[in-house]
Specification:
mainly alpha; single chain
């Protein structure tokens, strides 16, 4: 049996649930973004800085 709630309490509950879900989604997105940034490696060309071929 549900207790009678006023409309303002229901609005607060909905706002709290929406805020919690949004915060959790943001945290998951930030975690995936950090992992992607840490595992990314830049392309490194295989060109020597010093060459002794043209003496």
């Amino acid at each position: 049996m549900l207790l009678p709630h006023s409309a303002s309490m229901q609005n607060r509950l909905v706002a709290a649930v929406v805020t919690s879900v949004a915060a959790a989604a943001l945290a998951v997105g930030a975690a995936f973004g950090m992992v992607a940034a840490l595992t990314a490696t830049p392309e490194q060309p295989n060109v020597p800085l010093i060459s002794f071929d043209g003496r």
